[in-house]
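Folds abound. A case:
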Amino acid sequence: MASDTPKPAPLVIFQRAPYEGSFARSALDLAMSLAVFAQQPQLVFCGEGVLSLKAGQSTGAIGRKSLRKVIESLPFYDVDAVFVDETAVEALGLTLEDLPDFTILLSKNELRTLMREASHVISL
């Protein structure tokens, strides 16, 4: 008998500045790989990880590709649950216009609930 209760999804947390090492890119690769195997990952951007979402990133000087461009492709991988810590957005001086349209702002309490309900939590 099939259950109508949604199965817990893996949660990938982005908490580091976007070009601090390869953590953010590795987390994106992991999320897309999970999606390819129908794991329906949820992504959370918090702390300095929120800067990965900022529009207009210019990365030519550091010789890396923009993470924002990869993030914009997430809906094509059926990654529909992209959450953002609203406290971090405010603290870093970002606005809704800086974020992709498909992101969802969450409070600290909502983020805690999301983490508690996840099947796995992977924080990079």
Q: What stands out?
A: The first strand starts at residue 10 and ends at 14. DSSP finds four helices and five strands in the chain. The mean pLDDT is 86. The CA atoms of residues 49 and 124 lie 9 Å apart.
